[in-house]
Amino acid sequence: xxxxxxxxxxxxxxxxxxxxxxxxxxxxxxxxxxxxxxxxxxxxxxxxxxxxxxxxxxxxxxxxxxxxxxxxxxxxxxxxxxxxxxxxxxxxxxxxxxxxxxxxxxxxxxxxxxxxxxxxxxxxx
Length: 125
Description:
The protein is of the alpha/beta class. The chain is built from 2 helices and 4 strands. The chain has one domain (2-121).
């Protein structure tokens, strides 16, 4: 299930959290995709749906400045305080289609490199 506050390019005001994440615990959904970076979501929230796999938005697509791999790695480390690595999948927040190609690519590179850093730190590679 994908939860979205709308594309950052289009929707500029958004809430800072989802009021119903804990209700997903009892659902048959196995994965919950959560937009987190653009909304400033409290990263304790992804723990609420219980044992679901969390696909966590780790790139702010409302900002045209690409994240550094250090920033992305920090977001991942933060998420790992609440979701175990075997249940965490990283992704961009919604709206990548609105970014210029070079910026989208730079953001995806930062996501991949930041993930590789954290994977090495926790012994996954």
